[in-house]
């Protein structure tokens, strides 16, 4: 007769339990077991086993999938809030210093953001890596027992305290963004899409070469670091590229930043 295994009631507000779960999911994602917007089926039994070792509790696959969906929804809610209200972000408290009327106006449209009115998103950097399309790239201290310690997140969507606005430059915007012609189809075959992406990458390269003689750090120097953070398919890639071409001060600030987290936060602050 099969031995009965007691399933624990899940509590993902527990910081230790939540952190272990997220770290294990990151390990699976970074090991090639991501499948679309979730993990491959083979990942869940491994996570169940490791969580039991780490927290002494047994969960089932449905609980873990529900946790994944719950935290993904939290991240998307937080990400939208950062994008739309980033100018009120307090990097010390990691919350938003916004007038009451502004909060009320925002919550009327996005009531799910109420959870972040007085407290930050727990494990924001790890959730950015898990759900924001940025995977781990280096060693990390304090990795979970039973897993290798080769994974580490390197980014976050945290904005700078003071947003920077870029003045309009229609000519440059036309160069940096997708060319649109009168006979473009809304849907194009995969091969045509790939050719179009190749054309965009070549166009960006040509633009950066044209600016390499500007004062201060060159656009190419800045783009080299940017390409380690994003591909040109990410909208933030073009936000930063636009900034590099606009002002020497932006390039100097970018090169002087000490971490990827700081750089990504700065790019987010440029978004209008």
Helix content: 40-55%
N- and C-termini, Cα separation: 63 Å
Largest sheet: 2 strands, antiparallel
Structural class: mainly alpha
Adjacency order of strands in the biggest sheet: 1-2
Q: How much strand?
A: under 5%
Overall geometry: globular
The string of secondary-structure elements, in order, is HEEHHEEHHHHHHHH
Radius of gyration: 21 Å
Q: With helices defined by DSSP (H or I, 4 residues minimum), what is the helix count?
A: 11
- Mean pLDDT rating: 74
Tally of individual domains:
2
Give start-end ranges of low-pLDDT stretches: 134-188, 207-213
Domain Myb/SANT-like: 12-106
Protein name: Myb/SANT-like domain-containing protein
Organism: Vitis vinifera
InterPro entries: LIMYB, Myb/SANT-like_dom
What this model shows, in words?
This protein has eleven helices and four strands, in the order αββααββαααααααα. The protein is mainly α and about 270 residues long. The protein folds into two domains: about 120 residues, no CATH class; about 100 residues, no CATH class. The strands form two sheets. The chain has a two-stranded antiparallel ribbon with strand order 1-2. The chain has a two-stranded antiparallel sheet with strand order 3-4. The longest helix is centred in the first third of the chain and has 25 residues. The chain is globular and about 65 Å long. It starts with 14 loop residues before the first helix and ends with a helix. About 25% of the residues are buried. About 25% of the residues have low confidence. InterPro entries: LIMYB (IPR045026), Myb/SANT-like_dom (IPR024752). It comes from Vitis vinifera (Grape).
């Amino acid at each position: 007769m099969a031995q009965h295994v007691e399933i624990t009631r899940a509590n993902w507000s527990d910081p230790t339990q939540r952190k272990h779960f997220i770290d294990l999911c990151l390990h699976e994602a970074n090991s090639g077991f991501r499948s679309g917007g979730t993990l491959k089926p083979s990942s869940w039994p491994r996570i169940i086993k490791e969580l039991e070792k780490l927290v002494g509790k047994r969960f089932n696959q449905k609980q873990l999938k529900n946790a994944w969906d719950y935290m993904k929804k939290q991240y998307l809610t937080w990400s939208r809030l950062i994008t739309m209200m980033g100018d009120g972000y307090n990097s010390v408290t990691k919350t938003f210093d916004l007038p009451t009327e502004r909060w009320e106006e925002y919550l009327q449209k996005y009531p799910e953001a109420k959870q972040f009115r007085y407290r930050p998103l727990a494990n924001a950097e790890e959730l950015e890596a898990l759900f924001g399309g940025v995977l781990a790239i280096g060693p990390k201290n304090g990795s979970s027992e039973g897993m290798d310690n080769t994974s580490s997140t390197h980014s976050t969507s945290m904005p700078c305290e003071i947003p920077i606005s870029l003045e309009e430059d229609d000519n440059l915007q036309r160069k940096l963004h997708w060319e649109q012609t009168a006979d473009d189809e809304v849907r194009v075959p995969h091969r045509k899409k790939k050719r179009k992406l190749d054309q965009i990458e070549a166009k960006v390269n040509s633009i950066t070469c044209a600016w390499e003689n500007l004062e201060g750090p060159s656009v190419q120097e800045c783009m080299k670091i940017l390409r380690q953070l994003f591909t040109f398919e990410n909208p933030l890639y073009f936000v930063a590229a636009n900034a590099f071409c606009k002002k020497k001060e932006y390039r100097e600030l970018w090169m002087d930043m000490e971490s990827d987290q700081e750089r990504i936060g700065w790019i987010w602050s440029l978004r209008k």
